[in-house]
């Protein structure tokens, strides 16, 4: 696997995903090491002066009024990390912890934090050894950085606490470091603070959510197209000239995806003898408008994420001219807002997908399809309860769409009196994204079955080539088609894995070429 090189100018989203999800090894570039050394000289010069400097020779937060003598400063840093490693609840996912550590290492490499070279090198070594600190669900308010999560990672650099080894087993850190040949670090002035004062946890989860949602928005365009086709809907609403007169880029992209999936369909808009329609229902006709708005939200979130990736978040920071200044750049508001915004977009995309599923199952609105797409309605219940499951997921996503970033609970004796709750926004977004994949999977199961029912035994009604490719791939993935009732949960699980892994887009693109 190719190394991810961390220079003095940050990292890309692709770098973060490679390290977090694929285990790519990291390397510190020579210019980054030089910048680290230069900023450390500034901190050591300040540490030698009698004047107090926050984070160097003072306490922290509301305790910053106390000047700390040189002989107590190593203890100050140890105490900071130990006391702040106060998370509770279940451990968060390995990819989240690796992303968080990599992003903190990226900031250390910026030459703005004042740590010694050994601190950055040890963090890189821990990542490369596959040692993953145990980080708990609760503990970050998303201001002054993701303090507790980052402190649990910093504790590992000190040789303390627990971590997951390369084999996935949680063990004492001292054992894991010894086996990997990594010496624990004794932190010095400013270093404990530099290790915990960043938005790295929420940013890492934002980047992963963006990557996942990009795939799911494409998947949702495909399932919307299949549902439109199965409902004998009109593809005329997808015409480029209609999108051009309301020029939202995301809407145009979604409409084009649907149009390409439906190209060559013998079902769309031509077989409505049972109930002629002038217009389709909103959940079908307005699919590009809803998914497109979500795509534009995603583009805005990526803009914010890219800006944050280009940042060096710490307090205080070492400026290029050598000044060390306190600041408020650790406040997570910019990231928290877009995390909440994406949760809203995910909830609404799931909501419109569920409405299409319900329409496919309702014989009074499906234009000739059997009730619940059952083989023998009455004897068989078909996909009735699959829609219940889908509705439960939609309902949960609506609750998860309630913003976390509008809340603030003062902390540190009112010194930190406004916080972002960005970590909480990120945690609930991860759940919402996973729920959305399941919601889309249920629509996929229903739409592919409906298309098969519609075209079975007909020499006239033929699905689009891309649709046929999707149906074939879904069946190969273990999602069974039309037939008597059976144990349905395995089909839904297989459809979920198919959607999450990108199989749905891959199947459609084998005919359409790359979709947006």
Entry summary:
With 516 residues, the protein is mainly α. The protein has 19 helices and nine strands.
Explain what you see.
There is one protein chain. This protein is mainly α. It has 2 domains: 4-198, Fumarase/aspartase (N-terminal domain) (Fumarase C, Chain B, domain 1, Orthogonal Bundle); 205-316 and 325-405 and 418-512, Up-down Bundle (Fumarase C, Chain A, domain 2), CATH 1.20.200.10. 55% of the residues lie in helices and 5% in strands. The protein contains 19 helices and 9 strands. It has a 3-stranded antiparallel sheet with strand order 4-6-7. A two-stranded parallel sheet has the order 1-2. A two-stranded antiparallel ribbon has the order 3-5. A hairpin with a 5-residue loop joins strand 8 (317-318) and strand 9.
N-to-C CA distance: 28 Å
Radius of gyration: 27 Å
The H-and-E topology, N to C, reads as: EHEHHEHHEEHEEHHHHHHHEEHHHHHH
The coarse silhouette is elongated
Largest sheet: 3 strands, antiparallel
- Give the strand order of the largest sheet, numbering strands 1, 2, ... along the chain: 4-6-7
**Tally of alpha and pi helices:** 19
> Can you count the beta strands?
9
Which oligomerization state do the chains in this entry correspond to?
Answer: single chain
* Approximate strand percentage: under 5%
Question: What structural class do helix, strand and pairing data support?
Answer: mainly alpha
CATH topology of the largest domain: Fumarase C, Chain A, domain 2
In round numbers, the mean pLDDT is 95
Q: In the CATH classification, which architecture of the largest domain applies?
A: Up-down Bundle
| Share of helix, binned | 40-55%
For the record, the CATH class of the largest domain is Mainly Alpha
Fourth CATH level, the homologous superfamily of the largest domain: Fumarase/aspartase (Central domain)
Instruction: Work out the count of structural domains.
Output: 2
Give the low-pLDDT segments: none
Pathway: Amino-acid degradation; L-histidine degradation into L-glutamate; N-formimidoyl-L-glutamate from L-histidine: step 1/3
EC number: 4.3.1.3
Protein name: Histidine ammonia-lyase
GO molecular function: histidine ammonia-lyase activity; phenylalanine ammonia-lyase activity
């Amino acid at each position: 696997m190719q190394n991810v090189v961390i220079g003095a100018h940050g990292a890309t989203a692709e770098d973060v995903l490679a390290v977090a999800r694929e285990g790519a090894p990291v390397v510190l570039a020579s210019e980054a090491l030089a910048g680290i050394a230069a900023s450390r000289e500034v901190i050591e010069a300040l540490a030698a002066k009698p004047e107090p400097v926050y984070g160097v020779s003072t306490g922290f937060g509301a305790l910053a009024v106390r000047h700390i003598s040189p002989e107590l400063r190593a203890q100050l840093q140890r105490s900071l990390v130990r006391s702040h490693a106060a998370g509770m609840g279940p451990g968060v996912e390995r990819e989240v912890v690796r992303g968080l550590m990599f992003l903190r290492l990226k900031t250390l490499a910026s030459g703005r934090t004042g740590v010694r070279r050994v601190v950055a090198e040890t963090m890189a070594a821990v990542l490369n050894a596959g040692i993953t600190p145990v980080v708990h669900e609760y503990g970050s308010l998303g201001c002054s950085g993701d303090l507790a999560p980052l402190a649990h990672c910093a504790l590992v650099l000190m040789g303390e606490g627990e971590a997951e080894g390369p084999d996935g087993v949680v063990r004492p850190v001292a054992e894991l470091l010894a086996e990997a040949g990594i010496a624990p670090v004794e932190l010095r002035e400013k270093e404990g603070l530099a290790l915990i004062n960043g938005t790295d946890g929420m940013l890492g989860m934002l980047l992963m959510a963006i990557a996942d949602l990009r795939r799911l928005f494409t998947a949702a365009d495909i399932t919307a197209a299949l549902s439109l086709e199965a409902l004998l809907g009109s593809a005329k609403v997808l015409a480029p000239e209609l999108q051009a007169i309301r020029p939202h880029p995301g809407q145009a992209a979604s409409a084009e995806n649907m149009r390409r999936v439906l190209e060559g369909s013998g079902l769309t808009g031509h077989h409505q003898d049972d109930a002629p329609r002038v217009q389709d229902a909103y959940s079908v006709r307005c699919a590009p408008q809803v998914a497109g708005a979500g795509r534009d939200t995603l583009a805005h979130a990526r803009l914010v994420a890219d800006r944050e990736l280009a940042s060096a978040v710490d307090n205080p920071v070492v400026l290029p001219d050598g000044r060390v200044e306190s600041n408020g750049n650790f406040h997570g508001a910019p990231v928290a807002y877009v995390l909440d915004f994406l949760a809203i977009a995910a909830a609404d995309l799931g909501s419109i997908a569920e409405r299409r599923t319900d329409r496919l199952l309702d014989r009074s609105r499906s234009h000739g399809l059997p009730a619940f797409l059952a083989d023998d309605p009455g004897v068989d219940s078909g996909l009735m309860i699959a829609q219940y499951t889908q509705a439960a997921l939609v309902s949960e996503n609506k609750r998860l769409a309630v913003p976390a970033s509008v809340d603030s609970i003062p902390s540190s004796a009112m010194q930190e009196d406004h916080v972002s709750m960005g970590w909480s926004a990120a945690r609930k977004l991860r759940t919402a994204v996973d729920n959305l994949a399941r919601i889309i999977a249920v629509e996929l199961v229903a739409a592919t079955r409906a298309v098969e029912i519609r075209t079975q035994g007909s020499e006239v009604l033929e699905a689009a080539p891309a649709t046929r490719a999707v149906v074939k791939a879904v069946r190969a993935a273990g999602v069974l088609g039309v037939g008597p009732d059976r144990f349905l949960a395995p089909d839904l699980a297989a459809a979920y894995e198919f959607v999450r892994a990108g199989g749905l887009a891959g199947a459609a693109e084998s005919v359409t070429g790359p979709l947006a």
